[in-house]
Amino acid sequence: MRPRILLTALAGAALISGGAMAAPGLFSIHIALHDHGFGFRNIGIRAAKVRLDVTNRGKHVHDLAVARRGTTGSARPNAIVATKTLAPGQSATLTLKLKPGRYRLYSKVDDDRAQGLSAPLLVMAPTLIDGREM
Question: What is the spatial distance between Cα 21 and Cα 28, in angstroms, rounded to a whole number?
Answer without folding.
Answer: 6
